[in-house]
Amino acid sequence: MIDQQIRFSDAELQEFKELINSKLDKAKNDLELIKSAYLNDSNNGTEDTSPTFKAFEEGSETMSKEANSQLAIRQEKFIRDLKNALIRIENKTYGICKVTGKLINKERLKIVPHATMSIEAKNLQR
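Structure (tokenized):
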């Protein structure tokens, strides 16, 4: 019988920790950019242009703020998921599928480091 790896080694966990921390730093910076864009007055100097254009711009600005708000919410969830992944690394449960109990493919974790399910488990959900 093939001995299946139960968890990632400490060295592998350290690699993932570094990857997640770099993604976390970038995600936090991106969130700050989204928030500053959302809070920005976005005054493009339309006071002296036609009222019709101004109405279009205000509508566009509302849509833009809604889109930015959605982006910020998604980014905050991504940051929370990354932080949870760091907790799993500390607990040495990182990379273990919450459905099958098997190790998640290392290549998948490099692409989606906050994954909690293997592709096999994701496919079972459909």
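Residues 14 and 62 are 43 Å apart (CA to CA). The mean pLDDT is 85.
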